[in-house]
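User: I'll paste a sequence; please echo it back and then give the predicted structure.

Assistant: Echoing your sequence first, then the prediction.
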Amino acid sequence: MSTLVVYFSFTGSTKFVAEKIAETIGADITELKTSKNYPTEGFRKYFWGGKSVIFGDEPKLINDPIDLNKYETIIIGTPIWAGSFTPPIKSFISQNKIQGKRIALFASHAGGGAQKCFTKLKKELSGNEFLCEIDFVEPKKSLEENLSKAVSWAKGLAI
């Protein structure tokens, strides 16, 4: 069985970490893409992101379906919006019956909410074995430090 890294990235920070993790352990990787475009600047960016989480939005994913039966381990990456995981991750979870998998979680953020986010993800993904989680504060700002952190974490997953 193999490993899948699945993630949503809004500004590229989560993508940066996901690619390094997948490269380190030789995992397949899928970036979730939505039919909905979120505002990317100013107040609207934060308003729409927070509103989407609070109202439980599940945007339509435009990715091809993923055969999760091929994977024993799934690593899920998300930015943190309003103390939670992003709506595209919510869509992915609700569209796939994820049971009996080994799950690792990572999140990127600008300064807080990681444990709350991980708690919510674990609740949504009950029925799985959780390996570990890690968060990255502004990953692209401390590039070398976060690359090293991602590589060490990935190697420690014992996959």
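Strands lie at 2-7, 28-31, 71-79, 102-109, 129-137. The chain is about 35% helix and 25% strand.
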